[in-house]
Write a sequence for this structure.
């Protein structure tokens, strides 16, 4: 009887130690999350860059999003896009913050392309064309999650107007050439191969 009691006590102490260890790990994780949230909240007031690397405070999805917005406001599109890409890689597919990151990334691509075309005109298409394609891709990814998002639809259609059919084309000149060629080709009866049948 005494041996059974000692065995029960030993197992009870082991289970209590294991539960205490799990509780301690959860408490530490909760403390880290609270610290990261506090760093994020304190940096939002003056809207400064979150550079605090202690316990990964600058690598939380919220901190990456805040940093991306900060870089976008400072007109540093490369850094903003990099922060959005890091954020997207950390979040699951249906997350609202990830969806917003796709939308904001598309806006950066589209603004950069429009800025290039306004500054240098049509010769800048070689640089602006891929940016417009990336903007459309970002908007499509955002629309896959929420198809009724009107702001994304509007910007997506703006990107489509800027480059209606860029698949396999090198730029607007080739698109215009294709349109002229399509207008010059005959349509209706003259376009049908062979002799018309059933005509009197």
């Amino acid at each position: 009887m005494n041996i059974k009691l000692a065995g029960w006590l030993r197992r009870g102490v082991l289970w209590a130690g294991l539960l205490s260890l799990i509780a301690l790990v959860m408490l530490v994780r909760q403390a880290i999350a609270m610290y990261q949230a506090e760093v994020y909240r304190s940096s939002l007031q003056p809207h400064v860059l979150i550079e605090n690397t202690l316990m990964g405070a600058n690598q939380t999805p919220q901190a990456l999003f805040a940093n991306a917005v900060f870089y976008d406001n400072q007109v540093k599109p490369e850094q903003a896009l990099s922060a959005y890409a890091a954020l997207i890689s950390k979040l699951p597919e249906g997350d609202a913050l990830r969806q917003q990151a796709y939308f904001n990334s598309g806006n950066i691509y589209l603004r950069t392309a429009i800025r290039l075309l306004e500054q240098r005109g049509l010769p800048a298409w070689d640089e602006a064309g891929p940016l417009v394609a990336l903007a459309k891709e970002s908007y499509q990814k955002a629309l896959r999650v929420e198809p009724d998002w009107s702001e994304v639809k509007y910007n997506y259609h703006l990107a489509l107007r800027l480059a209606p059919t860029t698949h396999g084309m090198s730029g607007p000149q080739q698109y215009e050439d294709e349109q002229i060629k399509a207008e010059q080709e005959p349509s209706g009866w003259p376009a049908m191969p062979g002799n018309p049948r059933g005509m009197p």
In short: DSSP finds seven helices and no strands in the chain. The first helix runs from residue 2 to 44. The chain has a mean pLDDT of 78.
